[in-house]
Amino acid sequence: VDHEDSFVHTLANYFRQTGANVSTVRSPVPEEVFERLKPDLVVLSPGPGTPKDFDCAATIKKARSRELPVFGVCLGLQALAEAYGGELRQLHIPMHGKPSRIRVSKPGIIFSGLPKEVTVGRYHSIFADPVRLPDDFVVTAET
Questions:
Q1: Largest distance between two CA atoms of the chain
Q2: C-alpha distances in Å from residue 76, one per residue of 30, 36, 113, 130
Q3: Residue 67 CB partners (closer than 8 Å, separation 6+)
Q4: Span 51-75, mean pLDDT?
Q5: Staple partner for 87: which of 50, 111, 117, 132, CB 3.0–4.6 Å?
Q6: For 18, phi and psi rounded to 5 degrees?
Q7: What's the Cα-to-Cα distance from 5 to each of 15, 54, 108, 123, rounded to whole Å?
C-alpha cells in the first residue's frame, strides 16, 4: 500500500526479487481492490505524517477481516502498533537519513543471518512506544 513515499517502489522490487507478484495501490484501499487482486499479503509502506493521515486502520481492518497477514515498514509498522492499541511517540531528534546501531534480540525471519549488532539507516521522527505495545507484539531489535 503506497502512502505517498518513494520507498514503496524499492520495497515492491525487493518483494518481486523473491518471485512475488506485486501490485502497488494508493491508500486508502477500497474494498473492490481486495476483491479484484486477492492478495496473499498486505505490505504497508512508509510515508509522511502519521497513520491517521492515510486511514491505515481501515486498510488493516479490511486485510485482517480476510485473515491476510500485514507487514508494515516505518509508517506501516506505526499503523499496526496503533491499530492494535499501541501508542506512538515523537523522537526528540528526528532520524531522517541517520545511521544507527541496532541490537537484534530475536533474529526471526527478518534479521536471520545478521550479527547481533548492525548499522541501519533510519528515516523517521515517530516511533511506536515499546512500553505501550500490545501484549502479542514482540520487539525483535532496538536502537
A1: 43
A2: 17, 22, 24, 16
A3: none
A4: 97
A5: 132
A6: -85, -5
A7: 17, 12, 27, 11
Grid cell 505517498 in the structure block, residue: 4
CA pair distance 81, 94, nearest whole angstrom: 19
Find the DSSP H helices in the chain: 7-17, 31-37, 56-65, 75-83, 108-111
Instruction: Pick the closest to residue 67 from 23, 34, 91, 109 (CA basis).
Output: 34
Distance CA 104, CA 60 (A): 27
CA dist 79 and 60 (Å) reads 8
Report, as an integer, the average pLDDT of 54-64: 97
3: closest CA among 37, 43, 46? 46
Strand partners, 101: 119
Domains and CATH numbers, the chain: 1-83 (3.40.50.880), 84-143 (no CATH)
Q: What's the gap between Cα 109 and its chain centre?
A: 15
Given a contact cutoff of 8 angstroms between Cβ atoms, the answer to whether 139 and 128 are in contact is no
Residue with cell 500500500: 1
Which tens digit of pLDDT belongs to each residue from 75-121?
999 999 999 999 999 999 999 999 999 999 998 999 999 999 999 99
